[in-house]
Fold:
Amino acid sequence: MWLISRLSNMLNLLIIKLSCWRMIKFHFRDKLWNIRIERPFYLISHKNLGLLKLQLVPPVRIDRNVLIRGAATVKIGRFTTIGRGTTIECNEAITIGNYVMIAENVSIRDSDHNFDDITRPMRMQNISTAPVTVGNDVWLGYGVVVTKGVTIGDGCVIGANSVVTRDIPPYSVAVGAPARIIRKRG
Structure:
């Protein structure tokens, strides 16, 4: 019985991937929008938690091996580029502005696992969520991690391999783990 249940879950996930890919190709071809999505592109919705809604404002470029998954709404603004290997995990809301450059292997997540109850495995505990907002004209360098509840203001530059755990005011340059503001742009 366990094997049948496991196969059923795997098939449902595969069907979601294939149906989303067909929908993306069909929808974008008909509208003549300038959206470039390279294969493989993974759009995964958690069927038990709700549907993932992906809102793109063209033109947008999503490079290969980008994973967007969750059970909420991801909004991506115009002239945004998302680099290879990036993961966007959305359980509440993630908004990415216009003219945003996201380098390779960036992780943007709006949730964390709870771990307060030591009598239960962490995997079996709930998650806590808070929306993430990336403003307009932002550059997220290679390997940046953006955690839940963070707002990155317009015009910010986040250095490679930084971990953003707090809000970053507009036109700031931030680096490090955790990310600290080292100067203002301009």
In short: Residues 1-33 have pLDDT under 50 and may be disordered.
